[in-house]
Amino acid sequence: MTHRLEPETLVLDADGVPWSHRYQDRYTSRAGGAAQARHVFLGGNDLPAAWAGRRQFVILETGFGLGSNFLASWEAWQADPQRPEQLHFVSIERHPLRAADLAGHADGGAPALRRALAARWPLLVPGLHRLDFADGCVRLTLGLGDAANLLPQVAAGVDAFYLDGFAPDRNPRMWDAALIRALARLARPGATLATYTSAGSVRTALADHGFAVQRRPGFAGKRDMLTARYAPRWRMRRHEPPAAATGERRAVVVGAGLAGTSCALALCQRGWQVQLLDRADAAAAGASGLPAGLLYPLLSADDNLASRLSRAAFLHARRVLDALDAPARGGIWAECGVFHALADPAAQRALGDALARAGFPAAFAQMQAAAMAAPAVGALPRHDGLWFAGAGAVDAGRWCRQMIAAAGQSHGSLAFCASFAAVALQRDGQRDGASANWTVVAADGRRCRAPVVILANAGGLPALLPGQFLPLQELGGRLSLLAPPALAHLRAAVSGDGYCIPPVLGQAVLGASYEDEPADGHGQAGAPGADDRATREAHAANRQHLNALLSQPPAVHIAGSFAARRCISVDRLPLAGAIADLAAPAVDAQRAAGAQLADLERCAGLYCLAALGSRGITLATLLAEQLAAQICGEPQPLEKDLADAVDPARFLLRQRRGRYRTPSGAAGDRAPGDDGTLR
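and the corresponding structure tokens:
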């Protein structure tokens, strides 16, 4: 299970300086946090001069504390006419303050920026949180947890380091050799570093891990501080950290569902020119066109990879939806809450114990008896379960269309090309060591070319990547659309064995059937009178879901259906990342026996996002952000083990090791915890 967070409460010492009882130390100098940040951390890293004219600049900080260093860096970026296009700030904090304490603190920095930070402060849940400011040009990747555990999980190339934990004699874990080694792994060539301390143990650890260290005059009467530059005298790491991308910013995205529109928006927000292709005559014509689906996290007693990914993605999707203007948000997203009923008493006990250990805030998740949940739900659930107050219902089709509109109004540009049935992908040669164009070919002969291609076309992915080992399957399903006033008394959605959604987005919904054979059509709404056998069986199954969810299920009249196909992988995790280069030696069967995912060479400029299965509403935006970060060489919003878990090359590597014997895999039965939602 993820380590429990221990939030800090802000207190002041006798001089009015923020103080930590836990570490018996001040958060900042008595002369002020903003002034200290400018002298020690910006000045010690030669900022803002060092970032002048750059497309991207990345800072990593140990110890977010009051946020003074982030705010000072943002303020300097804002005032600098030579500022980089994108400023990334990565910071790790084990004992985060609450939003009210952040907002109420004044240290001489920019108060408007501090208020903006407090307004977007995340729920205090462990993991990485991506927060955007300045129209996406300033991105804070906030890691909540123990630096010893989180720093090795960070994937980034760093230009400047701020070492600002509590003093080495008060919190030695923040300064030990293992942590310095983790920093050195992320340092780009020539990366700089600054810290207020001049302790000998810190100097030694930095020197031992490739940093050339200097002393400089300290701040506010402190005699010395340290600065350093990463300049190892010999190779100290197996893989170099990501470099900032250069060259053209043009991409083709194949597929205009949740996966594809999320990718298009993420790139356009970074100034890219994107062509978005889809075989249908409109966006969200497949499973992503469903009129109502659920956005809520998947939790497990052991906090496994799928649960951690779901939790991070849920929180990210909430931030994306909350950033919409009010009219768009009202038609796309309803924060009605979701009660997840657990029929198995053993599962109730296990999850209850896990939640108690994790210490998640009640605003994120809490275990509730059915009777306690009834007032919030509007009806008595049949079983006790989990209450997600911040969860709700999403009109996925409208969200896709809104993301297309937003992409066209961002820093980049978007061209949507409908009725483009992609049948082949061609790779041009290499020129001067740089990636040349990829060409996507349509059935009618049309061609789209770009240096970067993202395949987000679900079950159509294997046809464009012959030879790649991608064990995918499409499974069908149907929603039952209810006639008013069905479920109008419900205040919240209920999930478990199926789900029911009140008419918070216009129409109540029951779902979802889970069929071995693909449903007829591809994201189609059935007429009220549709009476084929598969549809009748799906409606009967969905009525049974309602009976299993509520103690006194009301009579409902079914007015129509929505049929679609879900694309899933054999291990039930999505595919998000760069495609392996089959011609490279590292994917040879003999050499791959001892290879790791990081050792595999990739097809330059070729990526995929697919197999979101029943969790597309939850997963799409975070995984799209992950792809955009990989493409641009930015800090990644996923922890490394989560990125590895969704890497599309994982199946190829396992096949080369003899784990799979066939080039395609059957999906089997529904995965534990899968609610069967069409998303």
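(Above: one complete record from the training split.) The CA atoms of residues 53 and 233 lie 29 Å apart.
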